[in-house]
Amino acid sequence: MARFVIEGGAPLRGSTRVPGDKSIGHRALIFGALAEGRSVVTGLSGGLDNRATAQIFTDLGARIALDGDRAEIEGVGLDGLRIPAGALDCGNSGTTMRLVAGVLAGQRFGTRLVGDESLSRRPMMRIIGPLRARGAHISGVKGAKEGELYPPLAVAPLIDDEALIALEYRSPVASAQVKSCLLLSGLWARGLTAIAEPTISRDHTERMMRALGVPLQTMGPMMVLDPTGWDRRWGGFTWEVPGDLSSAAFVLAAALMVEGSEVTVEGVGINPTRTGFVDAMRAMRASLDVRPTGEGAGGEPRGDLSAAHGPLSAAMSAGELLTRMIDEVPIFAAVATRARGRSDVRDAEELRVKESDRIETTVALLEAFGADCTELDDGLHVHGGARLRGAVVDSRGDHRVAMTAAVLGMAAEGRTVVEDVACVRTSFPGFAALFEGLGAQIREEEEG
Ligand code: S3P
Q: In the predicted model, is pLDDT for residue 269 greater than 70?
């Protein structure tokens, strides 16, 4: 089992780049596989989650040559997917499973979607319900919660004159995975797909659809895909995926927390539906600059981000801000340990159904380092200022918990060991080497 060993207190200095955005990478691979012609996608994360999506579309008949951060894709068009030889393996990736389910719902062949142990505990009724409402034959298995369904998912084919029908759906959760699943299923539907969400979640799918000429209109948190009169095709494209802000957040956070640090992360995606962490750090009065540098893949803005250590004040994240930093809550809580006063996270019940129960795992992690925090049903309180001491902690198989633990270790006194860190490869391959390059005292060890 792999682990990180960290000596705290070493300042981070210099410029770096982080692996490509995982969310954008999944979508670029999907739209490339569904294009008519050849696409080239560069800047991919190289992580296991994006690889799972690439492998699934290979199994479904697209030709995808994945080499490091670059993919060359021969797309098969909307009507060219073919029956795979076996079950489609989503690994640890909830985004893969939920988005691919939207694609499979409209097919005339049956499929099965499977995932690892953590993914098999994640709720799927949020996509199964609305997909069934538009005529898809999709089911999951019963599990921990009454009325909920979990992976593996079975999608039976549409037969004879069956087709997906129009859907008007008001999502109870602000979830880009749910929204994207339904929009993708809309590509095979005979009527329109209208979706409203409580606050705007990441809008990468919408941006790419518009860039490719899919007839989608968006009005704040509402959108309509109306295929009437559309020829249901787009050609190949060349896209460069920006760096992942959700990964850059760990580098920036470490610089804010460790005395003497000053870092720049170049070429990071700064789509406003993703920049909640930056806004939250500014609310903490952090020294954090964003310099926009242009637009890349499918209308995605990018920029260079610089952070320097300095005094921080407590801040609150809830509502719309929370949606825009949903994956950054563990690292936000870690930074809050260094801020003056009580920082709060609210409206974050969704965190309980991520790769781990991230409210529980974050609170346990912070406490292991000596921080003062309280678990709430929908979030947590962090009382800043407690002394952080190096600890021996476990990732619980969650990549963002593992990386938050590593950053806490960099800010803490003494030695930290983070056990079970292989999961970091799902989103941030090369994590330890990148931090070492900036001056952190971190090494990855294979144990036993
Ligand atoms: C993602 C959406 C979010 C996020 C996940 C990636 C996506 O999940 O947490 O890491 O790429 O659509 P939810 O849609 O469940 O909020």
A: yes
Rounded to the nearest 5°, which phi and psi values hold at 241?
Answer: -80, 130
- Is residue 176 lining ligand 1, measured as CB closer than 6 Å? yes
Q: Which residues of 325-342 are buried (b: 16+ CB within 10 A; e: fewer)?
A: bbbbbbbbbbbbbbbeeb
93 Cβ inside 6 Å of ligand 1: no
Helices (H), 123-225: 125-133, 176-185, 204-211
Structural domains of the chain in order of their starting residue, each with its CATH number: 2-20+242-446 (3.65.10.10), 22-240 (3.65.10.10)
Adjacency order of strands within the sheet including 88-89: 88-89, 111-114, 150-156, 137-141
Evaluate if pTM is beyond 0.90: yes
Nearest-angstrom CA–CA distance, 145 and 321: 29
Does the pLDDT value for residue 448 go beyond 80? no
Output the residue whose Cα is nearest ligand 1's atom 16: 175
Shortest-distance Cα residue to atom 4 of ligand 1: 327
Model confidence at 375, pLDDT cuts 50, 70, 90, reads: very high
Note the pLDDT of residue 296. 79
What's the average model confidence in pLDDT over 269-273?
98
Residues designated as active site: 327
437 alpha carbon – ligand 1 mean position (Å): 30
> Whole-angstrom Cα distance, residue 268 to residue 265?
7
Nearest to 367 by CA among 407, 333, 398: 333
Expressed in angstroms and rounded, the spacing between residue 441 Cα and the centre of ligand 1 is 31
Which position has the token pair 């900036």?
438
What is the per-residue pLDDT across 391-411, written as a single tens digit (0 to 9) for each?
Answer: 999 999 999 999 999 999 999
Mutate to test the pocket of ligand 1, among 173, 201, 323, 329 (most ligand atoms within 8 A of CB): 201
- Ligand 1 site, residue 177, Cβ cutoff 6 A: yes
